[in-house]
Amino acid sequence: MISHRLIVLSVVSALMVWAAFLPMQNVSAQSVLLSNLRTSEQTAAAPSKAPSKASSMVKSEAAASEQHSVLRKLPAKDDTVPDPFLNPSIPPASPPDVGAILQSSGVEDALESPKSSPRGAHEDLDALLWLRTSVEFDALTRQAFAAATQKLGEALVDPDWEALVAAERTGAASASRPPCVIVDVDETMLDNSGFQLERIQSDTEYETDIWNKFVKRRASPAIEGAADFVKACRASGVKVFFVTNREAKVEAATRDNLISQGLMTASDPDQILSKNEQPDWTSDKASRRSIVAQNYRVLLLVGDDLNDFLSAKNLTIAQRKLLFQAHQKNWGQSWFVVPNPNYGSWEQATIGNDYSAPLEKKRALKMQTLGEAAQ
Ligand SMILES: [Mg+2]
User: Fold this and answer.
1) Which of 295, 290, 299 is nearest to 158 (CA)?
2) CA distances from 336 to 4, 62, 146, 186, 277 (A)
C-alpha cells in the first residue's frame, strides 16, 4: 500500500512540476519568435548579409500565408482560361482603352465640340421647345384670351371702364367714344417661333434685316385663342387696334399675315400702328395708345410685354416689379398677358438693357443676375 501511495505521489508531483514550467516554456517560445523576427528585420535592413535560418522560416511562413490568401480569392479553376495568378508567365489582360473606344465611336468629338456640348446649347432652346411643343403654352394663351373675352362684356356696360394709365388718356368722357381694344402683334396675336427656330438652327442672334425678311414671308400662325378673341370683339362691335413694333415698311406683310390667320378682314381699314409710321411713333408705344384714345374708349390691352401696357423701357428689374405692383388691379381685369419666355423687356432688364453687348458678356450678366436673384 505504502509503495503504491509513494508511486501515486511521485506521479502527481511530477505532473505539478511539469505544469508549473508550462508558462515558462511558452514565454521562452515567444522570446525565440521575437528574437527571430528582430533578426529577420535586421537581415532585411542589411541585404548583403546572408539571411539567418530563423528569418527564412518567418519569411517562408509569411509567403505561405500570402499565397494562401491569394488562392482563397481565386475563383474555381477553369482549365480553358489562362490564369495569370497561377501561371505568372501569362501576362494579364490589358484594361479596355476607353479613349480609343470614344474616339472610334465619334462620342469624343461630339463631347469636345462646343456646339454639341450640353453646356453650349443655344440660350433659347428650352423656351422654344416649350413654345412649340407644349400644350401648356397653348392652354395659357387660350386661357388669357378667354378671360379677356369674358371681361369684354363687363367693360362694355361700365361707362367708367378704362384700360389706359392716366398719363395716356387723351379723349373726352369715356362713354362718348366707341369701344376698342389694343393688342400687340408679335407673340401676342402671331406666333413667330419659326423665326426663333431659325436662330437656334443657325446658332445666330436677332438681326433687324433678317427679321424683316421673315415678316415678309407672311407665314406666322395665330396664337392659340387669338382668332376667337377677335371674333368676339367683332361680334360686340369693338374695334381691334394692332400697336406693333414691327416697322412701317413691312406693314403690308403684317396686314396680309393677320388677314390670313383670321385676325383681321380684308375690308378692315388701317388698324395697324407700326413703329416709325409717324415721326414720333418710337418703340415706346405710349404715344400710339394715346392717339387711339383720342377717338376710342380703350377697354382692354393684350400683350406679351410690360411695354404693351404702359411705358416701361430700360427699367431695372426692381423698377419693373414696382410698376407691376402699382398696377396690380389691372392684371386680369383690363390687362391680359400671354407668356413669352423667349425675349422681351424682361430679358433686357437682366443684361442692363444693353442688348448690343457681345453674347459672352450678356451670358455673364445673366448668370450674375441669376445669382443676385437667388440671394
Ligand atoms: Mg410682342
Assistant:
1) 299
2) 123, 85, 10, 15, 26
What would the DSSP string read from start to end of 34-79?
Answer: HHHHHHHHHHHH-TTSPPPHHHHHHHHHHHHHHHHHHHHHSPPP-T
> Distance, CA 304 to ligand 1 centroid (Å)?
5
The CATH code of the domain that includes 296 is 3.40.50.1000
Q: Provide the 8-state DSSP code for 86.
A: T
Instruction: Quote the CA–CA distance of 357 and 223 in Å, as a whole number.
Output: 31
The pLDDT of 312-317, averaged and rounded, is 96
Strand (E) or helix (H) holding 128: helix 125-133
- Domain-located, residue 50: no
| Ramachandran area for residue 270 (φ above 0: left; ψ -120 to 50: alpha; else beta) | beta
Query: From the CA of 186, how far away is ligand 1's center (Å)?
Result: 4
Assess if residue 372 is contained within a domain.
no
pLDDT > 70 fraction of the chain, expressed in percent and rounded = 67
Task: Give domain status of residue 70, yes or no.
Answer: no
Ligand 1 centroid to 260 CA: how many Å?
A: 19
State the distance from the centre of ligand 1 to the C-alpha of 374, rounded, in angstroms: 28
| pLDDT confidence band for 351 (50 / 70 / 90) | very high
Summarize pLDDT for 124-169 with one digit per residue, the tens. 999 999 999 999 999 999 999 999 999 999 999 998 899 999 999 9
Task: Provide the pLDDT confidence category of residue 123 given band limits of 50, 70 and 90.
Answer: confident
188: cell is 401676342
Is 303 among the domain residues?
A: yes
> 294 is in which domain, residue-wise?
123-343
Number of domains in the chain: 1
pTM tops 0.90: no
Q: How far is the CA of 302 from the centre of ligand 1 (A)?
A: 10
The order of strands in the sheet holding 179-183 is 272-275, 239-247, 179-183, 297-303, 335-337
